[in-house]
Amino acid sequence: MELKIKTYHFGFKFQLNRVKDLFDEPPVKSDNTYLLFKWDDSSFVYIKDFGCAVFVNIPKEAQSTLVEDLNGGKDDWAKYESHQLIIDSDKQISVGFDHITIPTIDVELVHIIALNLAQSAILNHYQSLTDDLLDGTRELSNHLEITGKVNLTRKRLAKFIGQTMSLRNRIADNLYIFEAPPLAWTDIRLSQLDTMLSEELDFKNRYHGMQSSLNVIRENHEFYKDMLQHKHSSMLEWIIIILILFEIVQIFIDQL
Fold it and tell me: Is the pTM of this model over 0.85?
């Protein structure tokens, strides 16, 4: 049996208490960071508070309605990724580029799969935001190379630094890619599946690459900050010199 999985990222955090109201039945599993609903024996909906929804074998029409409801009624679609879930009792757990194979389907296995796919989607989202910041930094560097001047105000620099800090904080709050989820600690199946998904989705390399980009951005910001501080200090020195000269001229005029 082959089931379709779609993982959506909406770009904003969910209020899980409100999300519950979209479903007729209570979740089969939940805590303060996620909700897992069972649609039928082989269909599930997983909602992660950082803004991801994973649909396992949900009918297309129902899925479209839920996506629109989760998106606040807006008809602009969220970004999504697709995978195949293969259920085959004669096969062992395995993970490929765009498919996942498990011998049987149950709530715990679906939870591990959905959690990892949601983590992958949020990682892609943060990578996109990091790339945008890196592009902005690259433009400033190119301008500096060509003109020898920093095309940046102190206010704009403060915004850049604030965006970078905010992104780092969100990454720290929402990514748990180096830790196995608690439900995998006591079940070898879940631990095995979690490890396979983590390796196939290349979490560690993607995370380290993103952190390297953020470090480059931070180093550039420090350099720009020093240049602007030097420019500001030089301007103050010139103001002081001009005021002293003005005082000297004034004294000279008074003595005439």
Answer: no
